[in-house]
Design brief:
The chain is of the alpha/beta class. It contains six helices and 14 strands. It is globular.
């Protein structure tokens, strides 16, 4: 049965260097057949670039997902169309460039992967994540053996609701965006593995990946500050789901975390 490692939001150079440096060991440790990672913070903490996407996929990552920072890096709207292993959130406006989903084929097992943006407290322009997820799951029927749905959202309740809504129709519904790993991972009654937030892959001696000082100062006086990616205590957080290729449902699920000292 195929096993998929999902890596939580990669933050800046520390996060992506950790993934690249330890990729072979990570894949072996978790016996992963397919590796998916959220990379929307991989470029300086905000967005993604073509060169960084290529670094991660050349290291072995099979698919890269994005979120509300998709267009933060100048020129990425031109680059994304040339990156076949990257998909932007599916419920962004239709005229946004880039793929709405990925189909990853490994040893005859076809995995569909897509992300939807939450609507609660997120800002920006996006369609209903529930309707978009339903539409894509219907479109992918017969084209894939299982699907992973990522919900990149602020509100935990919205994430939980989507998990229940898609129970039995996806192998995994996993939340990202808050950079804080949650402890509610499980397999729902219909066979869909669920986790509210996978956490981040980056420096944990930080405020969500950024150096503490500027963030705290802005919270104290409201004045704008320049945020930079921190560097200490880099960790990888995410989850692993084992999938029954015949039913497309989860057989086992576990949250995972790895530190530099673990290697």
């Amino acid at each position: 049965m195929p096993r998929v490692l999902f890596i939580g939001d990669i933050v800046g150079r520390p996060g992506r260097s950790f993934v690249i440096k330890h990729f072979s060991e990570l894949k072996a440790r978790f016996r992963a057949d397919i590796v998916i990672a959220n990379a929307e913070n991989a470029a300086g903490g905000f967005g993604l670039t073509g060169s960084i996407a290529n670094e991660l996929t050349e290291a072995g990552v099979d698919g890269l997902t994005l979120g509300n920072h998709t267009w933060d890096q100048r020129g990425f709207d031109k680059e994304i169309v040339h990156l076949p292993q990257v998909c932007r959130p599916a419920n962004m406006p239709e005229n946004n460039p880039g793929r709405t989903h990925l189909i990853i084929d490994k040893n005859g097992f076809r995995l569909g992967v897509f992300t939807v943006l939450g609507n609660c407290f997120m800002g920006g322009k996006s369609d209903c994540p529930f309707a978009t997820a339903e539409t894509l799951l219907n479109e992918l029927q017969g084209k894939v053996d299982a699907c992973i749905v990522e919900i990149h959202a602020e509100a935990t309740g919205e994430k939980v609701a989507l998990g229940w809504h898609l129970d039995g129709r996806a192998a995994l519904v996993v939340g990202t965006h808050t950079h804080v790993p949650t402890a509610d991972g499980r397999i729902l009654p219909g066979g869909t593995a669920y986790l509210s937030d996978a956490g981040m892959t980056g420096p944990y001696d930080s405020v969500l990946g950024c150096t503490q000082g500027p963030v705290i100062a802005k919270l104290l006086d409201g004045m704008p500050r320049r945020y930079t990616v921190a560097s200490e205590n880099v960790q990888l957080w995410g989850c692993v789901v084992e999938i029954d290729a015949k039913t497309g449902k989860a057989v086992s699920f576990e949250s995972v975390s790895v530190k530099e000292a673990d290697f």
